[in-house]
Each structure stands twice: as C-alpha cells, then as structure tokens.
Amino acid sequence: MCEALNILRTLGLRHGDLHQGNVMIARPKVGMIDASRLTVKIIDTGSLEPLGAPMEPDQKDDHRWFTEHLVDIWNSVRRRKDLFLAERRFLTESVPLLRSMLEEDRAVALCSPERIQTHFDRTWTRCQLPEEEDNVRLQDPFDYIAAEHISSDKLLVGLFAESCPWFKLVSSPDPVLLTGPRGCGKSTVFRRLSLKAVLYKSADDIEKSEVAGFYVSCSADLRNRFGWLTTERLAQKFRGEVIHYFNLLLTREIIQTLIAIGRRDDRDSLFGFGLAEENKIHNALMERLGVTDAERLRLQGMTPMEHALEIVESHMYECYREILQGSTVGHRTDAAYLSDLTRFLSQEIRYFGRKQITFLVDDFSVHRLPEPVQFVLNPVIWDRQGSHVFKLSSEKYGAVIVDMLSGTTEATRELREIDCGQMYIDLGDQNKLAASRQFARELLAMRLGLAGYEAKPEEILGHSEYEEGSLGKALRARAGQRGRRDDQYHGLETIADLCSGDISVLLEIYRRIFEEGRVDKSTRAMVPKHIQHRAIGGVSRDLLNLVKSYVPYGEEMYSMASSFGNLSRRILREAIEQKKGSRYVASETARIEVDRVPGQPDEEWSSEQKNLMVQCVRRSVFIEMEAGRGRHGFTPTLRWQLRRVYCPAFGTSLAKNTAVKWTTSEFKFFLTNPRECCAYEFETRWQKPTVPREQMRFHEGLSGDASSVADRSEDIQEAN
Fold first, then answer.
1. 13: number of Cβ within 10 Å
2. What is the pLDDT of residues 492-518, one digit of tens each?
3. Strand 636-642 and strand 660-662: pairing?
4. What phi and psi, each to the nearest 5 degrees, are found at residue 408?
C-alpha cells in the first residue's frame, strides 16, 4: 500500500475513493517465480484526480483511508486468540505509529509512505528480536546476576568475562556435558557461545569461532510444556509429539539466528547467506514441515525467513495443543530431521560449512525435564552425526545420559563432562589459582565499567595481605584472642578463592560488600577489612541456613555441612601441627576422602544413602572431586570438598594440606550421625586420643545395623 500511495503521489494523483472495497489481496499470477507471495491491488481508478484538487469537507484523502484500513486490521488481529509474543508486542508498539498518522498537523505527522513503511518495518523487526541500544549500560553493577534475566544478547556479551576458566573447553567443537552448582554461569557460557551473541562481536571473532551455536533453554521453552510427563507411559504415549516439538524449537532458533544474519551488511561476504540461499532454505523447510500451499502464501514485505518463523511458531502451538487434547499431530518430524536439516545448512551456507553446528541445550536437568522425557529425547541428542553436535548443561547428576537400549554413553566417545565446581577447587595448582582469580577480578571490573563506576576493583577491595603469611595462619593465630576485631576474610584474592564455581554467589558477596561499605560511583577508597569480613560472613551464614530449605534432605544436608564445617575449624585452630618436610604447620582441610580397606567385605549402599549422597552433590553442599587412588591399594577414592563459600560461617581456611580420611563404614556413620562422627573424628585423630578408636561403634547406614570399624592407629600416630 505504501508503494502504491507513493506512486500516486509521485505522479501527482489522488485515488479519491480508497475504501475497503477498492483494496484487494491478489493471489500470485501463474508462472511467477515466487509463487508464495500475495500482492495488494488497488482497483476502481475512475475517481483519480490531481493531488492538489479541492476536496469536499467530509471527504477523506488517501492517507486517511489508509490509516483507517490499518486500524481495522489492528482490531481484527487483536481479536485473534493465538497471538505470539512478537505479534502482541508489535500491536502494542504500533499504536503510537497509528496515532502519529492521525496527527492533524501534517508538519509533524507520520504521513510520508516511505517513512510509514520504514517505521512499521523497524517496529516489526524490533518486536521479533528486540534491538539493544548502542551503549549498553547497567543501572547497578549487580543487576542481572542470573543469565535468564538478561533478555539482550548484546548486554550479555558486554557482561561476559572472557577469562572464564572453562569457556575454552566448552567452546570446542566436541559434545559436552557442562555440570556444576546452580549459579555457576552455565547458562551465561552457553548463551555467549550462541551465534546470536557472537554476532555482537567483531568480524574476526565471528570468523574465529569454532562453532555455530543455537541456544535453547529447558527452563523457558520445555519445562512448562512437558514437565507434567512424569511417567514412562505418558512420555511414550506422546513420544512423537515431544520429538516433533523439540525439533521445531531448535528450528525456530536457527531461523531467528538467520533473520539476525540477514539484517547484516556482510550477510553475503562473511556468511554466504544471500537471497538465493534464503529462498532455498525457506523452500526446504516448507517441504520438510509438510506446509500446505495455503500456508506458503505470504504478503509482500515479509522475508522468507520471517515467514518460516511464523509457520514454525504456528506448528509449535498446534503441536502443544494436540498434546493437551490427547491427540496426535498429523505431520510430525522424526529423530532424523535435525541431521537432514543441519546437513542441508552446511551445504547451502558457507559459514555453517566451515563451523561445527552446535545445539546448546541449557538446564537439561531432571528438575526441569522429567527423566522419562529426557529418555525420549536422548536418541535425538546423542545421535552421532558429522553435521552437528549437542552440548548440554545440567546440575551434577541431573542429566539422564541413556539411550533407547538403556546403554549409558561412554564419556570418552560420546561427550566430555566439564564440572565447573571441580575446576575451582584445587588452590594448590598455581595456574588454576591465577586463572580463577583473574576471572573473578575481570567479572567485577566489567560490571563496574558498564555501571559507570570510577574505581577499579583493586581500589575498592584491595589485596588479601596477612602478617601471619596466609588466611589459615591468621585464623589460627587470632583464635581465642580477647578484644580482637576480625578482618581475615578480605581482598580480591580471598574473595575469588571463596568461589566453588558458583559465580552468582561471588556477585552476591561483591554486592554485600559494596552495600555495607556504602560504595557509590564516585567512591575511590577501599572498604575497610573488617566490613568486608562481616559482609562475607553474612553471605556465608545465609547460604548455609538456606540448605535447610532444600527438598529433599534439607535438614540432613545442613547437619552434615555444619558438623563438618565445625570439624574443619577445630582442625585448623586446635589440632596439633603436622610435619611438612622439616617444618611443622597447622592442618588445613575441608576435604573428605573415602576408600575401602583391603580385607573388609564390600560395602553396600542403601537407596536412601545413595539418594542423600546424590542430593549433597547435586545441591553443591559438597563438591565431588575426581576419584583418587586409595591409600590402601589401587581402589578408587571418593573425594568430597565442602563448598568453600560455607567456610567463613565457621571461620575456617579455604586451603588444604591434608584431608579427613575415612573408610566406607565411617563415611556411612557420617551420613547417619554427622555431629557425633565429626566430634569423635577430632578426638581420635587430631588430638591425643583418650578412647581407643576400635571401641567406637558405627552405624552402617541411615537405617542399618551397627558394625565395627577397622583400626586406624597408624593415621593417629602420623597426625601426632
């Protein structure tokens, strides 16, 4: 319509009678190359008159008629019930445009056909993929702690610290299972890897990227759809629909990314995605999705990818509606659909042919997607193809990596697991220690810069310096002193070491220090050490108390953490020093090591014990380290590290130069009665024993019988 009105204006003409009956939608003519494009026709030109001819007082000009047509269309669309988010947003944001078109003062009104088309096009584009402002800013440096709260990919790229310790491993072209505590940045890393986010980097960064990533969130896109399929019977009943919806979800992400690429000036030169490729992909999608001839028709001005997006979202809505009604979808894609699609994309788009197409499925955990649904999707996810790979993120033990034949995937062949918590633990590795500290500093520095703060992290927090030589020595030396003012937990290094991969906790510590230290944009002075210490301790206690609310086993896990934390403090402050070389040093540990003693019968774990252990690791009350080699042979050793952010609540060290070493029977007793177990552990090993250890009776499990424990006198003698 804008083109037609502009032609009339250019010719100095006015239609004069542009009511609805004279504006028609025409089907494509036979033989047209693009047979899917509908066109707009203006008929009854008998009333044409010069543009400057006088008009009757109640006569409407072409612009007024056009505006009324748009208002009528707006109301018709509004009455529809199945509007998508982009459509609802577009209707809202087009109201100011319509009001501007009705402005009486033509000097300020939106009345030029060219400007009208430009404004509506930009509004539609912004509503599909909201554009960010050129200068991304934060109101507060600690806004958007969770990646789910960041709607802007540009802002996410601006907040992302490229020194993230596990980013390089995750960005490889290999299949990956990324695990770790909640809030460790799994979602942020995956979204940063997506091509949508990479498009905000430089052309060199886009070219250097090894993967072409497409991100979907199970929390946002699948949980509300399939969270109720909690039984195997239900999941298998709708197996075809679940796979079809999953395929459509990933296809939607691909199309949205292609739309973003299509708006770039370098779409041809950098990506090899020209108009010819766009039409090919559109036609292929219509064919694979079984789109009818009527659905293929689209109006002028809508690009092929925008049309494909509308079709895919419509099919997703239809699929979900059929599931709720207990029906089956007529045309469904199958488990081979993605491999066919990605192979086609690699052949047609030059950029995809040079990169590894990667689907980034975030939060693939049983608390988001029930186990039966994961079981249905696994054949699609772990279908080994050269055209694409999957990367999953989940809580520890949250993903059910099982195929249809109930065969567990081989870690060395199918995927590589990267545990964010494990990568932060070893403070003895100087390279890892330096990398984690650099990341923690960069994370804060980038947020301060985006929020307009003048100071650098070093100016606000300072460095961790101790007259005694280390945090552990300072805690031990000042224990029991009267009138002391605690200030041990302070400085960039100690704050960074508190992190066990839980980046959201790191940001909360920064936020609490800034709040209690009254830091604003103009502050350049360091927050006093005792205020930093108080803020860190407050966060630690809050997080420890939060464990009680975890379901299930909240109280049990809290008892385990508090008992072991107190044991760790007593070992640091009260235990006799241990010999290291020619020196005697204080014992520092928050580590449990469990191995089987030769000659003892194999230990069997009850289901309740196993569930409690899994929940401790899944909730990151303890961080599970890689299995070590047992002290009594070549048996594997279970190694648990108390989450380091809990340590300030007990006033214990973050470093480790020894471990609490238990047999499986003793560890079972810890699960059953952690307070008594930890108290007896200190009495019999870490100070001069008064009761023979073998006289203590331990419970095998949460509901098991009592049994004796092997003599550990050699360990006691070594400690003494």
1. 16
2. 999 999 987 788 889 999 999 999 999
3. unpaired
4. -70, 140
SS3 (DSSP) at 603: coil
Torsion of CA 535, 537, 539, 540, to 10 degrees: 160
Please report how many Cα atoms fall inside a 13 Å half-sphere around the Cα of residue 563, on the Cβ side. 22
CB 141 within 8 A of CB 447: yes
Those residues whose C-beta lies under 8 Å from the C-beta of residue 219, and which sit 6 or more positions away, are 148, 362, 363, 368
Own/partner long-range contacts of 242-245 (Cβ < 8 Å, ≥24 apart): 242/373, 242/376, 242/377, 243/332, 243/333, 243/334, 243/335, 243/376, 243/377, 243/380, 244/319, 244/329, 244/332, 244/333, 245/316, 245/319, 245/320, 245/323
| Measured CA distances, 28 to 23, 34, 277, 285 (Å) | 16, 8, 22, 21
Cis peptide before 372 (omega within 30 of 0): no
Check: CB of residue 15 under 8 Å from CB of residue 48.
yes
**Using CA atoms, how far apart are residues 95 and 75, in angstroms rounded to an integer?**
11
Q: Tell me: the pLDDT tens digits for 615-658? A: 999 899 999 888 755 554 445 688 999 999 999 999 999 998 99
What does the domain layout of the chain look like in residue ranges?
2-128, 151-425, 430-549, 554-719
Cβ atoms of 709 and 663 closer than 8 Å:
yes
User: What tokens were used for 117?
Assistant: 């088309």
pLDDT attached to residue 460: 97
Q: Is the pTM of this model over 0.85?
A: no
Q: Which residue has tokens 């205020």?
A: 531
pLDDT of residue 195: 97
Helix-then-strand count for the chain, H and E:
33, 19
2, 3, 61, 114 from 15: Cα distances, Å: 13, 14, 8, 18
390 closest CA partner among 210, 257, 213: 213
Nearest-CA neighbor of 539 among 609, 489, 469, 484?
489
Dihedral class, residue 470 (left if φ above 0, else alpha if ψ from -120 to 50, else beta):
beta
pLDDT: which is higher, 144 or 456: 456
pLDDT band at 23 (very low <50, low <70, confident <90, very high): very high
Beta strands (DSSP E) in 243-401 are: 298-299, 356-362, 388-394
Quote the radius of gyration of the chain (alpha carbons, Å): 32
